[in-house]
Amino acid sequence: MSELPSQPQEGPLEEQQRDLLKKLLANPIEFPEAFKRWVGDYFAQNIPLIPYGNFLGSKVNIAKSGDFILTTEGPATSAYGNLTTVGPSVVGLADGVYVVLWGATTTGGEHEGFMAVSVNGDTPVDLHAGPSNFDQTITHGRLITLKNDNNSSIVCKYKGGQQSWGARWIVVIRVATGA
After folding, report:
1. What percent of the chain has pLDDT over 70?
2. Which uninterrupted H or E stretch holds 102?
3. Residues 30-44, buried b or exposed e (16+ Cβ, 10 A)?
4. pTM value?
5. Which residue among 16, 51, 151, 153 sits deepest, i.e. has the most Cβ atoms within 10 Å of its Cβ?
6. b/e burial code for range 104-127 (CB count within 10 A of at least 16 → b)
């Protein structure tokens, strides 16, 4: 067996060196314990910068957000509907299971108002809405399964005769593919 040089060599490895390297790397379980601990410690202190997109499934589960609507608008109506500026919304979503989070800052009104999401044009229900009274910031979330030939939309809708809604936002994160 040939000795490895103490100094790094320039140029390609010789045939014997390649064979020795193959043998060493063929079974990492056989590495000495001291080396395994050193490698673990090294990577714990020198975390490699691996782009998120290189991880399996990462491109599927990227969060998407709709437009942030700063303008305060309202009040809405007694049934779920749009404000002057529709949304926010996220469109063109693939089939799958999503965590959907939405919120806003509300002003005015002692009577309850609601902010909910409409999925592919359906009418929201109060059970799945973020309620608001007076002046406050609301955040609400829901797990939603989408199945619409990989072309779903989620749009925020509003209900209530006294609240005005501003700083409106929505974020969707796919947590499972298919439906």
Report:
1. 85
2. strand 96-107
3. eeeeeeeeeeeeeee
4. 0.64
5. 153
6. bbbbbbeeebbbbbbbeeeebeee
Q: What's the per-residue H, E or C state across 52-98?
A: HHHCCCCCCCCCEECCCECCCECCCCCCCECCCCCCCEEEEECCEEE
Closest CA to 155 of 62, 89, 74: 89
Q: What is the pLDDT of residues 63-112, one digit of tens each?
A: 788 888 888 888 667 889 899 999 899 999 988 899 999 988 888 767 77
The letter for the amino acid at 39 is V
Q: Which of 153, 149, 155 is nearest to 168 (CA)?
A: 155
Residue 177: what pLDDT? Answer: 78
The CA-based angle 127-132-135, given to 5 degrees, is 175
Element counts in the chain: helices (H) and strands (E): 2, 8
β-pairing verdict for 152-159 and 113-119: antiparallel
Alpha-carbon torsion (124, 88, 155, 86), positive or negative: positive
CA dist., res. 115 & res. 129, Å (int): 5
